[in-house]
């Protein structure tokens, strides 16, 4: 059993993976704070949490100038610093090359990379984190080879992944680790496109159960993964 009891973890993003992660961490006895721009998603996830002392906060990561205060407020509401952070915010916009506008590129990069960097910078402030903290970013298989239409999305995940080793080396002395998971097609309520069905066939294992990803994130947040810095955990079955 992973020891995450009474750990205060901030999960940003209540999509499929963030939702499953929040549930798993609450079952492990963590104090979970969830944030999202979508109130319905936020409420839905909050109702699934086990135990008490959890909190939900409506927040938009594109409000770059408010990220630091947001993080400080997360600490101030109960005067307890954070033990972990999961960045599961994700902007996946697809477009052909000719339809990949500067605005679309900026929109995707803002959420998946620029805001991610600002969140990390805010987290490592002395007033925010506890020693032996861990950060887990949710990347995507697209960073290894974006599919048609994933120009902006793939580039944003490449940026996230390539920043990881450098960040890990800079924050090591603070007692903070950072790693990521890099899943392929994840099981969800949405219908798969024909291309996604082809990728799932190549995976041979079927779409990835988000609960499995949540357990892997829990492992990376726990002391059981001490010694793991700046790494990407690929979860893609037999898809090469």
From TrEMBL:
Residue ranges the record marks as coiled coil: none
Highest taxon listed in the record's lineage: Bacteria
Swiss-Prot/TrEMBL keywords: Oxidoreductase
Family matches, as Pfam families: adh_short_C2
Any one GO molecular-function label of the UniProt entry: oxidoreductase activity
Family: Belongs to the short-chain dehydrogenases/reductases (SDR) family.
Name of this chain's protein: Short-chain dehydrogenase
């Amino acid at each position: 059993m992973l020891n995450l009891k009474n750990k205060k973890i901030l999960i940003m993003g209540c999509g499929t993976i963030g939702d499953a992660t929040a549930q798993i961490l609450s079952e492990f006895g963590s104090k979970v704070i969830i944030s999202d721009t979508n109130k319905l998603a936020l409420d839905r996830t909050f109702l699934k949490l086990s135990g008490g002392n959890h909190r939900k906060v409506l927040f938009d990561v594109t409000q770059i100038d408010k990220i630091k205060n947001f993080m400080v407020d997360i600490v101030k509401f109960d005067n307890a610093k954070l033990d972990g952070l999961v960045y599961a915010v994700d902007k996946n916009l697809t477009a052909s090359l000719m339809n990949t506008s500067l605005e679309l590129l900026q929109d995707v990069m803002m959420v998946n990379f620029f805001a991610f960097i600002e969140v990390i910078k805010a987290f490592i402030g002395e007033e925010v984190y506890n020693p032996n903290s861990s950060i887990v970013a949710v990347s995507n298989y697209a960073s290894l080879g974006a599919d048609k239409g994933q120009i902006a999305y793939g580039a944003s995940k490449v940026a996230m992944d390539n920043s990881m080793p450098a960040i890990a080396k800079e924050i090591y002395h603070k007692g903070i680790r950072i790693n990521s998971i890099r899943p392929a097609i994840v099981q969800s309520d949405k219908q798969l496109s024909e291309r996604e069905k082809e990728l799932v066939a190549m995976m041979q294992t079927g779409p990835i159960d988000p609960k499995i990803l949540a357990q892997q994130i829990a492992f990376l947040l726990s002391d059981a993964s001490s010694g793991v810095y700046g790494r990407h955990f690929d979860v893609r079955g037999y898809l090469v």
